[in-house]
UniProtKB/TrEMBL annotation:
Keywords on record: Cell membrane, Cobalamin biosynthesis, Magnesium, Membrane, Transferase, Transmembrane, Transmembrane helix
Family: Belongs to the CobS family.
NCBIfam families associated with the record: cobS
InterPro entries associated with the record: CobS (IPR003805)
Organism, as annotated: Segatella salivae DSM 15606
Protein name in UniProt: Adenosylcobinamide-GDP ribazoletransferase
Keyword Glycosyltransferase: no
Phylogenetic lineage: Bacteria, Pseudomonadati, Bacteroidota, Bacteroidia, Bacteroidales
Length: 267
């Protein structure tokens, strides 16, 4: 029944729903998707990453031609925040507040994550996150970093999207922030998701190589976060998805930068 309902929602509805939800660009002026389409937005999440990563990478690369690399990095980070409306950063802050301050109490964790106020764990977590992200963007040559950005954003959105396959939603539609529960992926949408996530990694892989550890460590981070969510709240939320995406992406940046500078990186 679930697959039949999904097939009755056109790809145009699903695509525009994803673009409207995951960005702050006025796609709603072009097309208004069906309400049910928002339950399927995860399957086009990596494709929205093509847009955000392209804007971020272009801002960084071309900005580095006219300003110091540090300024270009800050501007690139700001561009992504403006495009997404800090959606994922908000999720990371809520995730850290909930799991940092909620202990093992499932209800308390979910209540804290739903609270619009930011706490100590969220503030400190965002500061550390942006410090590490900034450093990762300023170490390698601009063209390498631009390709790294293009690869990482869609790929780790694709990886994170699989959370909905492995775990139940921890809330109900009535208690969810956006009143939406994501539907599980069909085989067709799963293949599409994989293609969306992997294609942007090919230029980085071809021109500079991609050590296997750059995928293995983020995979470990993903698994540990999965275990944490499974143990504490027995599922996932939208905040969890945003946090897992940013943390796995950041772990990729850290490992890729370290191994690009290390003499054994080519092994």
């Amino acid at each position: 029944m679930q697959i039949d309902i999904q097939n009755n929602i056109s790809w145009r509805d699903r695509l525009f729903a994803a673009l409207i939800f995951f960005t702050r660009l006025p796609f709603w002026r072009i097309y208004q998707p069906k309400k049910e389409a928002y339950e399927t937005i995860i399957e086009f999440w990596p494709l929205t990453g093509w847009l955000t990563s392209a804007c971020m990478a272009a801002t960084f690369y071309f900005g580095s031609m006219y300003m110091p690399l540090s300024f270009a990095a800050i501007l690139a980070i700001v561009i992504r925040i403006l495009i997404t409306g800090a959606l994922h950063e908000d999720g990371l802050a809520d995730f850290l507040d909930g799991f940092g301050g909620g202990g093992n109490d499932r209800k308390r964790i979910l209540d804290i994550m739903k609270d619009s106020r930011i706490g100590t764990f969220g503030v400190l977590g965002l500061i550390l996150y942006f410090m590490l992200l900034y450093q990762c963007l300023t170490i390698l040559p601009a063209h390498t970093t631009a390709l790294m950005i293009l690869a990482a954003d869609p790929f780790f959105k694709m990886i994170t999207a699989n959370l909905i396959q492995y775990m139940p939603y921890a809330r109900t539609a009535d208690t969810a922030k956006n009143r939406v529960v994501y539907r599980k992926l069909s085989i067709k949408s799963g293949i599409s998701l994989f293609i969306q996530g992997v294609l942007p990694t090919l230029p980085l892989w071809y021109f500079f190589g991609l050590p296997y550890i750059c995928i293995a460590l983020p995979a470990l981070v993903y698994y540990l976060l999965y275990l944490l969510m499974h143990h504490r709240i027995g599922g996932y939320t939208g905040d969890c998805c945003g946090a897992v995406f940013l943390l796995t992406e950041l772990s990729f940046y850290l490992v890729y930068v370290i191994f690009s500078l290390h003499p054994l990186a080519s092994l």
